[in-house]
Amino acid sequence: MESLYDELSAEQMLRIIFNYTTKIANERNLQRVLILMADMGREMIRADRCTVWIIDHSRGELFTRVAHGVEELRVPLGSGFVGHSIATGKPLLIENAAEDARHNEENDKLTGYLTRTVITVPFVGSDGQIIGAYQAVNKLAANGVFSRQDLEYLKLAASYAGKSLESVMLHEEIASTQRELILALGEIGENRSKETGYHVKRVAEYSYILALGLGFTQSEAEHLKMASPMHDIGKIAIPDSILQKPGKLTTKEYELMKTHTSIGYNMLGNSKRELLQSAAYIAHQHHEKWDGSGYPQGLKEQDIHLYGRITAVADVFDALGSDRVYKKAWELERIIALMKEERGRHFDPSVIDVFFAQLPSLLTIREQYRDKLPSPSELA
Ligand SMILES: [Fe+2]
Ligand SMILES: [Fe+2]
């Protein structure tokens, strides 16, 4: 029978490599890639622990995720064996950690874990820069020491998975830049009408919760969350005299105000990017009503894109609870009553049902992103 301490056969090794590299190549989430890579390394060389550390230059630290849902771990950039490997660009094979000056004994005392033998292997990005390193600790074998062979295997794991790791890191970088730009754009639309503070952020979070409640997958819901902040981007083209008018708008002014929907659509709709396409639908349709009495097209029921129906609920719920130039914030009870009343009129009944089912989480978001009151100096 196979024991824990047997060395792997070539076939077993190939199976592990094939299994993990396929999974890693298909993974777009950095956290999951780090965990998969660590698992691959651990299985290939039968280590007790294996960690993939990534350099965060902005903070002068290394970070990692060792398990799903667990906070990321951070250590100073130059510390320990892994820090040494990253600084020199060379792998390390340590047979007896206790005899090595680079070993951080304090850490062992703190965690109650005894580090005996260690391998570290740096990852090199395509531009030749080091982006992080593997660290494997303690061999699960009779003699308990890592061998040259183990080091070669971990180098192999690093070269197989390193490219995927780099591409996921680039992808995350692009995605987070995109997110920031979108929020900034959305805020421009809102700030023009003095809908200050976290309105855009809250609408995004509410849309996300509603989407999940309606059965969207996690990534579909995240897509909507990124697109919904742009719903009022067309307000960029509406004059201040209308956006900031404290009183009721004249018919002519109101007609002009309504064009922020088509303007937003025209701004975003030409993009080939799926995200901006979705944002274009939302900008166009977030004032449509389930019963067909909305604007600009007077669309009805399912003819309104589901993104538009969800954003409508999120936007109105939030707008009613906030002070605007033309009105004070409503009490929560009054808002809830209106949301109920407008089920099947303004709003899609199924979205409202989810709204009520998810009300506690929506209120948590509302509390979490509450607008700060302006300070006395800002009022002066
Ligand atoms: Fe709007
Ligand atoms: Fe809005």
Question: Please, could you describe this protein's structure?
Answer:
This protein has 380 residues and is of the alpha+beta class. Helices cover 52% and strands 10% of the residues. It is elongated. It has a six-stranded antiparallel sheet with strand order 3-2-1-6-5-4, sandwiched between helices. Mean pLDDT is 87; it is low at 375-380. The protein is built from 16 helices and six strands. The site of one fe (ii) ion has 6 residues, from α6 and α12. One fe (ii) ion (FE2) is lined by residues 199, 203, 231-232, 315, 319.
Any key phrases for this structure?
six-stranded antiparallel sheet, HD domain-containing protein, Beta-Lactamase, GAF-like_dom_sf, disordered C terminus, alpha+beta, Hypothetical protein af1432, 380 residues, single chain, binds fe (ii) ion
Write the topology of this structure.
Layout: H1 10-25, H2 30-45, E1 47-56, E2 61-64, E3 73-76, H3 80-88, E4 92-94, H4 105-111, E5 118-124, E6 130-139, H5 148-192, H6 199-213, H7 218-227, H8 240-243, H9 251-258, H10 260-268, H11 274-285, H12 306-320, H13 332-341, H14 349-357, H15 359-368, H16 376-379
The structure holds fe (ii) ion (2 copies).
Short description:
With 380 residues, this protein is of the alpha+beta class.
What characterizes the major β-sheet?
A: 6 strands, antiparallel
Succession of helices and strands:
HHEEEHEHEEHHHHHHHHHHHH
For the record, give the distance between the C-alpha atoms at the N and C termini, rounded to a whole number. Answer: 81 Å
Rg: 27 Å
Strand content: 5-15%
Approximate shape: elongated
**Helical content band:** 40-55%
CATH architecture of the largest domain: Orthogonal Bundle
Which structural category do the helix and sheet elements fall into?
alpha+beta
Number of helices: 16
